[in-house]
Each structure stands twice: as structure tokens, then as C-alpha cells.
Amino acid sequence: AYYHAEGGNDVQELHAGDSMVIPASQSYRLEVVEPLDYLLSS
Fold it and tell me: From which domain of life does this come (predicted)?
């Protein structure tokens, strides 16, 4: 799964078991990308 701050280009990868804290003042959107789909779209 990948997430990035809206309007930003910084992308971080989240691995299974990782926890993430989203500040209430920030707007994040989660993007779930399947490995095969990711490879095909790159």
C-alpha cells in the first residue's frame, strides 16, 4: 500500500505490520496497488 500527502509528490511505502499516524490537520489518501498492476502501469 502506498500513501502520499495530497498535493505532494512524496510517496512512502507501507509494509504489512507497519503503523501510520495521520495528523488530523493533514489530508492523506490511501492507494492500494497490486504488484502486477503497478508493474504494468509503470
Answer: Bacteria
